[in-house]
């Protein structure tokens, strides 16, 4: 077949331009980063025309990319999947043979390798909560995000809390499965538990209940802990708080992406979920679990508090590196 000559750098530029209407900005940035390795390899290999690409060369790229420092199986799969999408697109514009993308071999991952790793880092959570404590103390934003971080509760469990689930005297929350009145929790009755609270969180809850909480009931006649003018605060509202306040610029930090708040398209709250630095509720839970583990809270305690098995913690939540785990073990073994 007749191919149209196209340089690798130009091909990447055209690919990104073509996908602007299809992909989110953060996704486009990720593609640019991953394909940057590809154009670097083409330059080193002396490939100036994508028409030259074939299955053997793509295999060489895979080996070369694997040699570039730390490169986990999950990262390798992500990069190669991106290359396959790019090569498939090249085939549609006569840059390569239309079936060449089938020769891009992407590794199959085990469940351990395939677990997601997006997390809210401790320092980012601390900056966010410090900002809320100073400027929006005892607001629904402050309370809901503090609960997500400190208790490691799932979004559904925070949403399900009633006013009476908070025991001010004994300082704990009751997590209760109530499917008949609209608030089931993950794992059903086996997910029911008591979650101890620190004095600091109890003070925050007390101040919220006495001064900021709207005295509302939901459609089932229950009194939610987190309320809005419509009754129980919605999951979407709590989710939006996560996206809003996990943006670095929202809490006075510099933008890691080099953008200015006055002109950034992700500053309006309705666009906060598109910010590359913002995170959904689950990374709060993942970050909280990692934070507790990194501060020497026993895994069994974290497991029971977060209602998640040690195996699942290891596979999906614990973001400590092998070296960090080793150094923590050293503290216990150093005097033996």
What does this structure look like?
The chain is mainly α. It has 2 domains: 8-114, DNA polymerase, domain 1; 122-283, hpI Integrase, Chain A. 50% of the residues lie in helices and 4% in strands. The chain has helices spanning 8-19, 25-45, 55-66, 73-92, 111-114, 122-135, 140-151, 155-160, 199-212, 235-245, 281-294, 299-306, 310-317, 322-333; strands at residues 166-167, 172-175, 193-196, 227-228, 231-232. It has a 3-stranded antiparallel β-sheet, with no helix packed on it.
Summarize this structure briefly:
The chain is 50% helix and 4% strand.
Q: What structural category do the secondary elements indicate?
A: mainly alpha
What level of helicity do the residues show? 40-55%
Name the poorly predicted regions. 111-116
Q: How many distinct helices?
A: 14
Mean pLDDT: 85
The total beta strand count reads: 5
Instruction: Tell me what portion of residues adopts beta-strand conformation.
Output: under 5%
List keywords for this structure.
about 325 residues; mainly alpha; DNA polymerase, domain 1; hpI Integrase, Chain A; two-stranded antiparallel sheet; 14 helices; 5 strands; elongated
Blueprint of the fold:
Elements: H1 8-19, H2 25-45, H3 55-66, H4 73-92, H5 111-114, H6 122-135, H7 140-151, H8 155-160, E1 166-167, E2 172-175, E3 193-196, H9 199-212, E4 227-228, E5 231-232, H10 235-245, H11 281-294, H12 299-306, H13 310-317, H14 322-333
Antiparallel strand pairs: 1-2, 2-3, 4-5
Helix pairs in contact: 1-2, 2-4, 6-7, 7-9, 7-11
């Amino acid at each position: 077949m007749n191919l149209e000559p196209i340089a690798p750098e130009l091909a990447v530029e055209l690919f990104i331009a073509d996908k602007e209407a299809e992909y989110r900005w953060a996704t486009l940035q990720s593609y640019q980063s991953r394909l940057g390795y590809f154009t670097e390899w083409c330059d080193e290999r002396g490939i100036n025309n994508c028409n030259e690409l074939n299955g053997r060369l793509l295999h060489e790229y895979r080996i070369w990319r694997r040699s570039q420092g730390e490169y986990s199986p999950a990262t390798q799969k992500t990069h190669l999947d991106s290359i396959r999408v790019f090569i498939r697109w090249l085939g549609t514009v006569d840059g390569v043979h239309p079936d060449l993308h089938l020769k891009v071999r992407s590794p199959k991952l085990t469940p351990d390798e395939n677990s997601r790793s997006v997390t809210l880092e401790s320092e980012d959570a601390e900056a966010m909560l410090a900002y809320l404590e100073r400027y929006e103390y005892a607001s629904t934003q402050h309370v809901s995000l503090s609960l997500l971080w400190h208790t490691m509760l799932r979004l559904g469990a925070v949403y399900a809390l009633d006013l009476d689930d908070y025991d001010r005297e004994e300082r704990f929350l009751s997590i209760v499965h109530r499917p008949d009145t609209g608030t089931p929790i993950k794992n059903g009755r086996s997910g029911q538990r008591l979650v101890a609270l620190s004095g600091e969180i109890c003070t925050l809850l007390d101040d919220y209940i006495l001064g900021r909480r709207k005295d509302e009931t939901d459609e089932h006649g229950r009194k939610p802990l987190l309320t809005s003018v419509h009754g129980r605060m919605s999951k979407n509202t709590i989710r939006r708080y996560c996206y809003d306040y996990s943006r670095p610029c929202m809490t006075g930090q510099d933008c890691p992406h080099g953008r200015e708040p006055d002109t950034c398209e992700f500053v309006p709250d309705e666009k906060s979920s598109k910010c590359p630095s913002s995170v959904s509720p689950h990374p709060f839970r993942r970050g909280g679990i990692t934070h507790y583990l990194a501060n020497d809270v026993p895994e069994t305690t974290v497991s029971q508090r977060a209602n998640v098995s040690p195996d699942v913690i290891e596979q999906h939540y614990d973001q400590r590196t092998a070296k960090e785990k080793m150094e923590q073990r050293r503290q216990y073994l150093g005097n033996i």
